[in-house]
Amino acid sequence: MSEIQNYTLNFGPQHPAAHGVLRLVLELDGEVIQRADPHVGLLHRGTEKLAESRIYNQSIGYMDRLDYVSMMCNEHAYCMTIEKLLEIEVPERAQYIRVMFDEITRILNHLMWLGTHALDVGAMTMFLYCFREREDLMDAYEAVSGARMHASYYRPGGVYRDLPDSMPQYKASQWHSQSEVKEQNKNRQGSLLDFLKDFTNRFETYVDEYETLLTNNRIWKQRTVDIGTVTAEEAKDLGLTGPMLRASGVAWDLRKMEPYEVYDKIDFDIPVGTNGDSYDRYVVRIEEMRQSNRIISQCIDWLQDNPGPVMHEDHKLTMPERMDMKEDMEGLIHHFKHFTEGYSVPEGEAYCGIEHPKGEFGTYIVSDGANKPYRLKIRAPGFAHLSAINFLVKGHMLADVVTVIGTLDIVFGEIDR
Amino acid sequence: MSQYYSELSDKVSAKLAEIEAIQATIAYRELTIEVSKENLTQVCQILRDDQELAFDTLIDVCGVDYSTYEGSALASTKGKTRYASVYHLLSVKNNHRIRVRTWLDDDFPMVDSVTGIWSGANWFEREAFDLLGILYSGHPDLRRILTDYGFIGHPLRKDFPLVGQVEMRYDANKQRVIYEPVTLEERVNIPRVIRDDNRYAERESEQKNGDQA
Q1: Which residues pair with B65 in a beta bridge?
Q2: d(CA A131, CA A220)
Q3: Is B33 touching A (CB cutoff 8 A)?
Q4: Phi-psi category of residue A77: left, alpha or beta, with phi > 0 → left and psi -120 to 50 → alpha
Q5: What is the ipTM of this complex?
Q6: A39-58 pLDDT, tens per residue?
Q7: Using one digit for the tens of pLDDT, what is the confidence trace for B139-166?
Q8: What is the model's pLDDT at position B206?
Q9: What domains lie within chain B, and their CATH numbers?
Q10: Which chain A residues are Cβ-neighbours of B86 within 8 angstroms?
């Protein structure tokens, strides 16, 4: 009788279900996984090294490109760490704007996750549904920052500018007639906040639509229930955070436990799972979208009633208004210094973590008092999550690897940095 | 909050007194302790297992190369050593954090691995090994993780140039990808400067007075 040997399979790096550039070396016994060895780093761009050679504000743009489906949250962690070192307070309106855009980002991220995860598991429609809603939120990004994805909208000390009073409009073309465009522009007649208000009113029913397709779907349940189970103790030991930890029954959310910005003034709940399997993580993330929607609508209400500054007023640290630069000598000097030297951050070290859609995203900055960080370390949640994949897939079938990769919600921009 | 962390600092110092007299500092509402590399695993074991501390999650392991560090307030770091391994710990149970720093040798930076205490440390230590060349003894699988297969050098060391050492291209004659020394020149658009800023001088003197009191 011939000796039975394990079979080694190379999964990726160009596999559609690998969510980017994951090369996974799988050791199989028949169709059962014995060992999974992920090879990462194919998207390594040396963000941390680059940041050491650039002044603080120049690296904000790099932060967008880390986790490229939750752009503003990355910026948020970076800006908050700098603010901690500078010991400056952000104006309240800017805090509300940040919270609102963090939650928009969370919905963007979860929609992307839901669409691709469901597509991997075999539900095509979800992908189309999710991208329909992402479009509206991308437009919100565009309206506020000019860019649909890589916004670089947050700045240490606040946000780059106040919310716009008008929304960009669709224009008629040879594919879309005037009447069609009029219909498309119907909810874009007011300000950005009116547009988002309209979105939050609609979004709850959209989530219901997703749930009718998946939550009680027999195939979906067969593919996700009891796949990639992790207990609370194991999750903490493996360094899992965010929905990965909450699905295992730990009510841990930095927005509640270490409230930053104005999260302590906002009413929302933390969904918690019980079994810690892929299905629970799905349910937790779906509920998180509903909670994010609640947070956004509370922020809109506050922002509509409370105008005010959105940037810290010490222009040694933050950019002056454009008008000041043109008319005021001091403003011109500040502007010049910001673009030729930047600001120096006092010596010290700080770590700041935020509740990123994927987990705890943190940045650790060591400053020696210069205008560039001495060392910037980015703690990406996906990095810890992917490192747990060997634990999660061991003993499962080959087809379940795809489910587990999906449920981890990994994006290679942040893992490889 | 800082009240809480000064109490925590006392607690940690008391619990670790048997092993080592640790140096604890609180800055920006964060507690940092420094331990010697010989005692690191022992200290981490206590930090995790003690019920009052219960640091059950390892958030991050970060290697730092202090060789070109120009700051003055952290003068105590000068003349210490070049490398440090920094651990960020979180207690989900008690909702507090701590930073543990350990200084490593200049020419052969090596420290015991904490993978036996938190299995999540595995990849973080591989990353620090890859990017800074810090060796973690007892690590089950200390391979490079982020850089290319066959990469030479440790990119986050301060003596590693920003543009790198080699560049690669496809050679049509040899019909394969080849590596060559870089032809790029490193360009500095904005120089690195440290200003004597009076606003921070005030804060530093406050801190010093606070330390004495």
Answers
A1: B83
A2: 20
A3: no
A4: alpha
A5: 0.87
A6: 988 889 889 999 999 999 99
A7: 998 889 998 888 888 999 988 988 888 9
A8: 59
A9: 2-144 (3.30.460.80)
A10: 364, 377
Amino acid at B188: V
For residue A292, give the nearest of A312, A313, A266, A315 by alpha carbon: A266
Q: Answer for the pair B26, B6: CB distance below 8 angstroms, yes or no.
A: yes
Per-residue pLDDT, averaged over A210-236, amounts to: 89
Interface of B with A in 120-159 (CB under 8 A): 120-124, 127, 131, 144-148, 155-156
User: Which residues of chain A lie closer than 8 angstroms to B45, CB-CB?
Assistant: none
From chain A, pick out residues whose CB is under 8 angstroms from the CB of B148.
41
Test B197 with A344 for CB contact under 8 angstroms.
Answer: yes
- CB-CB: which of A48, A238, A371 is closest to B156? A48
Residue B60 tokens, joined: 């991050």
Residue A272 CA to residue A208 CA, distance in Å, equals: 19
Give me the residues paired with residue B168 across strands. Answer: B179
Best mutation target among A347, A361, A386 (most B Cβ atoms within 10 Å) is A347
Q: Answer yes or no: are the C-beta atoms of A158 and A318 closer than 8 Å.
A: yes
Give the model's pLDDT for residue A271: 92
> Is the minimum CB–CB distance between B57 and chain A shorter than 8 Å?
yes
Q: What angle do CA A232, A233, A237 make, to 5 degrees?
A: 115
Q: Rounded to 5 degrees, what are φ and ψ at A354?
A: -125, 165
The C-alpha atoms of residue B211 and residue B213 are separated, in whole angstroms, by 6
Tell me if A103 sits within 8 A of A299, measured CB to CB.
yes
How much is the mean pLDDT over chain B?
83
* A416 vs B contacts (CB less than 8 Å): 146
Instruction: Tell me how far CA of residue B176 lies from CA of B57, B151, B170, B171, B172, in angstroms.
Output: 45, 17, 6, 6, 7
User: Nearest-CA neighbor of A153 among A105, A195, A87?
Assistant: A105
Whether A238 sits inside 8 A of B120 (CB atoms) is: yes
Contact A106, A133 (CB under 8 A): no
Q: Mapping DSSP to helix (H, G, I), strand (E, B) and coil, where does residue A47 land?
A: helix
**What is d(CA A202, CA A200) in angstroms, rounded to the nearest whole number?**
5
Task: Provide the edge-to-edge strand list for the sheet that holds B57-65.
Answer: B23-27, B30-35, B96-104, B83-91, B57-65
- Cα first-last separation, chain B: 19
**Peptide bond before residue A13 is cis, with ω within 30 degrees of 0:** yes
Going from the C-alpha of A29 to that of each of A5, A26, A357, B48, B152, the distances in angstroms are: 7, 10, 35, 36, 35
Which amino acid is it at A10? N
Distance CA A164, CA A49 (A): 35
Is residue A70 within 8 Å of A236, Cβ to Cβ? no
Q: Which of A101, A190, A116, A160 is nearest to A311 (CA)?
A: A160
Q: What is the DSSP string of A209-237?
A: HHHHHHTT-HHHHHHHTTSS---HHHHHH
Residues present in chain B in total: 213
